[in-house]
Fold this protein.
Amino acid sequence: MRVTEPEARDLAVRLLRQRGVPDRAASIQADVLVEAELRGHPSHGLQRLPRLLLRIERGLADPVAEGAFSWRSDAVLDGDGCKGLGPVVAFAAIDRLLERVERTGVAVAAIRNAQHLGMLARYVEAIATTGRIGIAMSSSEALVHPHGGTRRMLGTNPIAIAVPSAGGTPLVVDLATSEVSMGKVHHHASVGKPLQPGWAMDADGRPTTDAARARDGAIAPFGQAKGYALGLAIELIVAALAGTPFAPQIRGTLDADADCNKGDVFLVLDTDQSPDLAARIADYLDLVRASPPERADRPVGVPGDGARARRSASLANGFEVDPQLWATLTDLQHDQTNSRRETPS
Amino acid sequence: MRVTEPEARDLAVRLLRQRGVPDRAASIQADVLVEAELRGHPSHGLQRLPRLLLRIERGLADPVAEGAFSWRSDAVLDGDGCKGLGPVVAFAAIDRLLERVERTGVAVAAIRNAQHLGMLARYVEAIATTGRIGIAMSSSEALVHPHGGTRRMLGTNPIAIAVPSAGGTPLVVDLATSEVSMGKVHHHASVGKPLQPGWAMDADGRPTTDAARARDGAIAPFGQAKGYALGLAIELIVAALAGTPFAPQIRGTLDADADCNKGDVFLVLDTDQSPDLAARIADYLDLVRASPPERADRPVGVPGDGARARRSASLANGFEVDPQLWATLTDLQHDQTNSRRETPS
């Protein structure tokens, strides 16, 4: 079914408010989920919401916590999420980094005990709109096998980077260091579609294209040995800075039973913020876009272009949501009056 | 032919000294080249030396410059390499970062106008031996086509990361964001060996496995769209911080005709430097190594393991050097007495 952005945002905000999330925090959390939908990443969208609501109801997530912060050193912020909503804690940290970076030029936050962040692109692009470079890294449950290995030992360990450019359209890179997402494996399993060779191992450590068997197995790192190396480095950086466990011990982002113990790292780097630099970057990106494509009907893209185009289309025409998910969310409302104009609780 | 580490180091140091490079600087530059040989990366080893010597003789590289530095902000160091040797300028910057990071917790250097760095691993592992996380990024000549593109538009844009661990063996990741190196393409061309499909395009933008044709073409980014995204992000980060040009305008690392205008970025992050953290990291890496391998005869590796093993073997038994390269280097000596014990010039 097709849903409009205000419909999705309103429903998400209402569901969060009804579980004690303050207005502003509900807006921030809803925004991250809805933005993922708008850009065509439903795996990081509304389907995350029922589990988050359940985590709040069970006391695993604190609806009002905004994190406790202290400066470990001049430019490194130590954050305890105190079970707060991931985006709420993250933006509280980023606000502090953006203030500090004016003096220090670079600033880092390392956060433990916060809920799932959702799509990392949202955080770094918020940093880039202030004219700074933003980098985000997060650790996660073990799902990825080492290059040359067969057992899930690493998280999907995503990294996002945004660099400001002219015209308010930064370069935004957001990638998990796995070849595919486990969400995609589950989706293939549900529709009976085979996986591509090289994507996954089964629980016995054998390469498989059977999505159902891969669900209990492990997904491959992207880009062979190099992607594995990068994912492992992110695993260690996050654990070292945030003091959080490694993938095999991480819980609480894919379940509704355990405290969340993954780590998040944000890095803000000042640039000279000159129009000249922004224009140089924009010109180079345009040069890349204008370079000869491999297929005549597919111009060369720059990371973030597709997401921006999908977002525009979704804002204009709405976006597709699994009807069963929408029904679930609708049913999760405590008050079924369903009014868009209800007064804030 | 087989060469020992002291032989290689002595010859490299002598050649540099004979062109006016001071003792300490010659040692630093020779070390980076010889360490690459010891680890089995000859593309970043002695074969870089003749061109560097020529660059010094032509005034494109300054044998005595150590860079000019100023703190752009509290934790961001602005570096002008003043045409100095890449490793000499880089370690001058890293020394300043290591001092500053005790107060700031994170510090960054952005350097322009320095010669080629060689193997990035050397710099970040030096940082990691002090108990900090090191990250290095460098820009380079356009050799890599965009994902979905055919023309060389990006540098190979390497990134290296080292995270301290117990036992003095940090995790060391060092990767170019290209699928292969142009050096490998040249090597395949010289021995008439075909490339693997997907490695390269020819100058007309057509996929090719003909190494000779690929030399004038473009190499692929590693890991498809994700590796391309990462390489592009590094391209922009370096240009934005160091104020250097983008790949299509970069010169002076593969030639002996142009000033060097690529950029380098180093980032140092303090950790708590506790034995507990170092032990946790070492335990996790051992867990990864002990996880079931894909092939029974090939245990799972951790990035840097192979390089360490090759280094030990090279130190014990020497390493292979192309006899023609060794003859070239020997001939480049001004004084052919060839004494190991010559007094410093």
